[in-house]
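Entry type: protein chain
Record version: 2
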Amino acid sequence: MMSQTPSGAVLFGRYAFPPNRLGYCGPDDARSLLEYVAERRTDRGLLELERRFSGAYPYLQLIAGANDIADPFDRRVVEAYWIGNDCLKRVDAAAFHTSLDERFRARMDPRTFGWLATKLQLGARPHHNFHVFEVYTRAGLMNDRSAPVLLDTMDSCRISWGMVAAVDGDVLLVERRALILRDGKLALSEPRPLRVLRQIEGKGFTDAVSTGDVVAIHWNWACDRLAPSSLARLQGATRRALDMANTTL
């Protein structure tokens, strides 16, 4: 019988697939990634695909190393990056700085990188939403280098959550809080209706969701059904990332 708990590699793919299918990051093989993850198959092929996500994989390596976890695709590590957990607290500022320096200093002018480094002194953690609000906006990390980084782009790229109001075939209607500017600061709106994709040709990661469930959303794709504890951790990590971003807005 197939385990109901996905492996770390399958969990990673649930969140990495949405931007990959749009051509924004990762290898040019979104169809294979979708099939691996929808079927919960973990083998060398999946791992080789996922190591080619040059934006996310180094964060997994950083988190794994800080927690003495040998496998960057350990479920605890993957969950820390996309959702948030205590593994993030064990990444010290020096190691985080080294990682950012190696990857992004050359993409930024010295003033911008120095500004980014100050976030580490304020307690920044290597969560995906930190990456969206602080790094992605400054380092030109979309494969389409001409794409403008706007508020809507940041809102799509962050990991968000929404309560399912209706299931309509391949689409979910959810109530979701959007990223907005309020008095010149990043904030979340009151819940708004949004249609998000959950399947392509019958393949997806949230087949069993129903009205009232909460799903994680990335680039208008339903990645996973969130348990209350996971939702609380994602909400906490998002508040932290927003507060961090607002210190320099």
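Comment: The two ends are 51 Å apart (CA to CA).
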